[in-house]
Amino acid sequence: MPRPGETLSGATLERVPGGKGANQAVAAARLGANVQMVGCVGGDANADEALAALRAAGARLEVREVDEPTGIAIILVADDGENVIVVVPGANAEVGNFTVDGNILCQLEIPDEAVREARAQWLCVNAAPARPLVVDADLVVANRYEAEVIGEQRLIAVTMGEEGAVLLEHGNEIARARPPRVDAVDGTAAGDAFTACLVVSLLEGRAPDEALSRACAAGAIAASRFGAQPSLPTAYEVDAILLA
Fold first, then answer.
1. In what order do the strands lie in the sheet with 139-143?
2. 33, 52, 66, 91: least CB-packed within 10 angstroms?
């Protein structure tokens, strides 16, 4: 990674569909869930590209076109797979005034008011980018840095990269898992794969320790592949790496 003020050369540039909400919707659909994606795009060329993988995965779309440009993220990926990300929210800042119910997974790349609108039977919030939560979620997913911002939750899965993840209920550990060993290529969307797999596994009725193990496996698979949505695994791939 370049240091402040430093310029590095020799990189390559790729355009890949992404965004936390879209990544997690695609991941959940590939894992076998019945998914509806709610959000906003702009009236620009990026919109079709942003929605293509969602359609291909079979997610139903309730997406509104707004005046702001479709959101993008600039991601620098180092040789060891670590990344840094800058998000340009664009149309994501206009998300709101949707009727949403059922089992809901949302992220914080949208306004707090949109998060408040969720009338969930069961609600999971992926607390990224990190800020204090405005809802009482049934499950929160955060990395160790995001967890410091949001504080103790009723039920929280804290991810720790290659060290795995821990599931805490009212501050008490109820499950811990480590990912299978993979060659890390690109950490982009690994957290989204983890989050979607944890949610789908819990909603399938799996025990917390099994759900957490599956989520760690999904994240590891995503980290072993380049890109955001192209890296997201199917349920078959998660089962296969756990049995290997």
1. 101-107, 119-126, 139-143, 155-159, 165-169, 172-177
2. 52
Among residues 101, 138, 192, 209, which one is catalytic? 192
How many CB atoms are closer than 10 A to CB 80? 10
pLDDT digits (tens, 9 = 90+) for 186-241: 888 999 999 999 999 999 999 999 999 999 999 999 999 988 899 999 999 999 99
Handedness of CA 70, 126, 63, 114 (dihedral sign): negative
Of how many residues is the chain composed? Answer: 244
Token pair in block for residue 175: 């499950």
- Give the chain as a DSSP string: -PPTT--------------HHHHHHHHHHHTT---EEEEEEESSHHHHHHHHHHHHHT-EEEEEEESSPPPEEEEEE-TTS-EEEEEE-GGGGG------EEEEEEESSS-HHHHHT-EEEEEEEE--S----SS--SEEEEEHHHHHHH---SEEEEE-GGG-EEEEETTEEEEEE-PPP------TTHHHHHHHHHHHHHHTT--HHHHHHHHHHHHHHHHTSSSSGGGPPPHHHHHHHHH-
CB proximity list for 11: less than 8 A, separation 6 or greater: none
User: Which tokens go with 221?
Assistant: 């698979």
Concerning whether 67 is annotated as a catalytic residue, the answer is: no
Q: What percent of the chain has pLDDT over 70?
A: 100
pTM of the complete model: 0.92
